[in-house]
Amino acid sequence: MHEDIDNATETFAGYRELLFSVVYNMLGSVADTEDVLQEVWLAWQARVRGAGPIDNVRAYLARMAVNQALARRSALARRREDYVGQWLPEPLLDNDTTGDDGATSVLRTESSSMAMLVVLESLTPLERAVFVLNEVFAYPHTEIAGMVDRSPAAVRQIAHRARAHVRARRPRTQVDPRIRREVTERFVEAAMGGDLEKLLAVLAPGVTLWTDSGGAGVATSLQPVHGSTAVAAVFMSVAAAGLDGYRVGWRTVSGDPCAVIFDGAAPLAVVVLDIAPDDTVIGVYSVTNPAKLTRVSDPDPAR
User: Fold this and answer.
1) In terms of C-beta density within 10 A (0-12 exposed, 13-18 middle, 19 or more buried), how is residue 195 classed?
2) In this structure, how many other beta carbons lie within 10 angstroms of the beta carbon of residue 261?
3) Tell me: the pLDDT tens digits for 81-113?
């Protein structure tokens, strides 16, 4: 029996990164992803004790994770009804450590960027699950069908509908990481320096600002702010209020360079930019909810 449990532990650990990535892309919350994986682990232990071998362990674990994540989405939807202001995914920083068993790195692709995760929030839970499994992790429709208890034909239709919805709201773009970093640096320098002219130069006319404070931390707008003039005004008012003692650390969120604003050693905000092919900023995602910044460490604690 001990040997079976040891083997089950080793098998689960081998697939944990994949399962974490799938569930996080479905939920956008590290804490909820960890809860789902704990439930999957307990169910997996019980399955190993109570039945014979499984032909396709990867598919079996993925199915359990997807179904637990779908169930969790219902609880998340109820929590969102009481959430103060805008909700953004919890920033998952590259090289982040989650759980007790080491670093977990989510698949770094355009499909798991902050901007894409925001778009995925507009899908139904089933559409999001199918989109994530097919587009991000390249599961075939036939395998997804077994995970979500639908026919392959139904899954194909769901995938087509979800893909069309996502691409209508977010056409595929590809911006060089070095350019992303350069644009992010110019944005932060202008915003924190209160330089209106330089800030307007980097913002696209139709830029949108999303802010998530959860009703705590830095005061933010309860609704998205649209347009370069309005967005610039927000950051000019912040700069005018005084930013003495604040400093910037650089991180990467799902492949996107981001700025972390620190007040002393404490993270105050994570700012991720969505950048258009013409190198202007079309989206600003600012997370200041302290509950979503607990995993953000100081890049230079000696300062």
Assistant:
1) middle
2) 21
3) 888 888 999 988 775 534 443 334 444 455 568
